[in-house]
């Protein structure tokens, strides 16, 4: 038995005084209304209505049940109405976690447009490269690049970031440009990035004419934060593999130059990730749609030649 439907059928009969009129109001067959009321009485173990050929009356138990049921049904209708309103004008606090570089270079500069569109959403932006536990830390969604480590979460791919290999002009002048990726393991040094979650270092990857090469460069410094990684590259501490959007302004102003340009580097997928919930809040839904639109249109994230 659909208890909610049965309660609505019973309330309809009480309010109209007739199974026929209740059926018309609820837009269902009279036989269905009758069956629902009978099932409700059987479930409760009491008679709610007195039926005669001429009229329908409410029993004392029926009157008491109607008073409580009517309050509940009105509350449910009000809740449905408020949720519909919230979908039209999302409001409330939204907790989002994002990597440092994406926050500083892409998201924060565009947040004024998000606020203009959704002025009643207060955004709590957690900015770091460290992994977060969405459930334990009450985070609504995270934006991260790289492999997805938790298959139980829902992920929406919003971008694919190009990667470039680069160093400072001073480093290249001192050491010469590397001729092959394996030079990073012998005559050159790189800057090492390790996972904030596992401590595992990420290798440099290259591909050319079907040949794939993975190297783990010699290094003098390791970091686990993207902005620190750029700072280490700009300090001339070695060769770095950077997302193109992070390297682009430094290549444009000459503080970094590309090396191993005849070797391609595998890109990084960016996802917005949130807990599985088929009743996703309107705040999360509109933010996910906005962030996907932002990443699709951001000039900084678009593929194109790197000048410098």
Automatic annotation (TrEMBL):
<dbReference type="InterPro" id="IPR036390">
    <property type="entry name" value="WH_DNA-bd_sf"/>
</dbReference>
<dbReference type="InterPro" id="IPR005119">
    <property type="entry name" value="LysR_subst-bd"/>
</dbReference>
<feature type="domain" description="HTH lysR-type">
    <location>
        <begin position="1"/>
        <end position="59"/>
    </location>
</feature>
<dbReference type="Pfam" id="PF03466">
    <property type="entry name" value="LysR_substrate"/>
</dbReference>
<dbReference type="InterPro" id="IPR058163">
    <property type="entry name" value="LysR-type_TF_proteobact-type"/>
</dbReference>
<keyword id="KW-0804">Transcription</keyword>
<protein>
    <submittedName>
        <fullName>LysR family transcriptional regulator</fullName>
    </submittedName>
</protein>
<keyword id="KW-0805">Transcription regulation</keyword>
<dbReference type="Pfam" id="PF00126">
    <property type="entry name" value="HTH_1"/>
</dbReference>
<dbReference type="InterPro" id="IPR036388">
    <property type="entry name" value="WH-like_DNA-bd_sf"/>
</dbReference>
<comment type="similarity">
    <text>Belongs to the LysR transcriptional regulatory family.</text>
</comment>
<dbReference type="InterPro" id="IPR000847">
    <property type="entry name" value="LysR_HTH_N"/>
</dbReference>
<keyword id="KW-0238">DNA-binding</keyword>
